[in-house]
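pasting for the record
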Amino acid sequence: MKRPTSGLVVVVWWAMALIFLARTGSAEVVDTQMVLLPPNPHLNQAFGYAVAVSGTNAVVGAPESALQIGGAYVYSKFGTNWIFQQQLVPVQATTNDLAGVAVAINNDLLAIGAPGFNTNPGTAGFGSVYIFQLTNGVWGEQARLTAPDGQRGDNFGVSIALSGQSVVIGSSFHSDLGATNNGAVYVFDLTAIGWQLSGKLLPTDLTNNSFFGQRVAISGETLIAGASSSIVGNANTFAIAPGAAYVYTRTNLAPFDAPWIFQQKLLPNDFNDGGQFGFSVAMDQDTALVGAPLTSEGGTVYTFLRNGNFWTNQTQLVPSDRTNGDAFGFSIALQGTRAVIGAVGKSSNNVSGVGAAYVFTQTNVFVGTNAIFTTNTVVAQTNTFSTTNAFAPTNSLTPPPTFLAQSNLFVSSDVFAANNVSAAPNGLELTNASATNGIENDGWFEQQELPQPQVSDNFQFGFSVGIGTQGILVGTPAAPIGRGTGAAYMFGGSESLLSIVSAT
């Protein structure tokens, strides 16, 4: 297993507020920073591998803690400070479970993915997801979810998303329909008798090594799942592993097992070989973002807008300083009209792998069938986040960008045509976006690049990102230098200066 190897002394980052130039516009500039650290830091725990934010609570995954049992740490905001609250270690977690590879939080529910979970040596990598609930200020374990048809090496729990009382779980190495590693997605709902499986999603066009479910997101009764290595093509166009994303909807939760209906397959409009479209996904109401971190230009994020029942490719998001190898789109989080995007491979000052994170804002938005116009509105939403990276079938952590490049891809003649994304009739074009600092992208503009707390080799800033009403959280599991303890950095607005508080 490729493990963190740094033996350097862990440096605790204390109290630094970074103030930089504000953009002359109405969008709030993110200009302050504080570091979140575990109260029991040690080397090789990969703290910050996954992050999520909901209101005044934040959760950080550390899948290599305690002999790779893993776990997660919860922080809460009091006044202007984020303070450590509780370490969560699933009761049934054992060595190599890697709990904390994926985390999600929504109000009083929190989920931790443990894709390495096994009940015996014959089920290594079976995977599980642990649900915690907040009661009287304490997070208590409520349930452990597993796939009813799980197999060894499925990595159930490699990605998770929460919305209301529903949890979406990716099992990207699941094999079904005669294929290998085509992937699957499971949805569970909390009912009067506990958590019940309400659906297993398995597109019929998946091929070997599609990795469907590697990333998932949900907003209300709509979910999206990425399949970053799927193959698409037709007589005129063929691309090897450009990737795809699948959108599903359901009408209501009554009964809880109301069927999930396939709505649309989203594809990149430029079919970049090996671009890994679908490696990251995010969704908020009628907007979806899909990352393709290995496009030849250095990574791209594609935005889609739903009008009625149709999704159309709105634009491509790219940072103003993008270069080859940046892996822009490695992680994505979306809330309302604001998105934060990680570029884990970005180099700085001739130092490789420093990483970066960018904030993009959408100005003029038309949503749904009624063409609702908003301007710089940040809508509170707690269920979007981006989990990070995936696991090899042996359940070992594979640092980027090695996992991104897939090999031995299965070529199938039964593939979708390049034009299979339905165009919405009378689609509304987004115009009149104003950007005085950054690149305008049909209503989206680059608001700013968040400052890296350290310029060091393989720092991996932006490995994971989360966004909420109270701040933006960026994970860097390699902090401080090399693959070390890890850290997560919280950024807020200038109106509420954040100061450091010891996690202990």
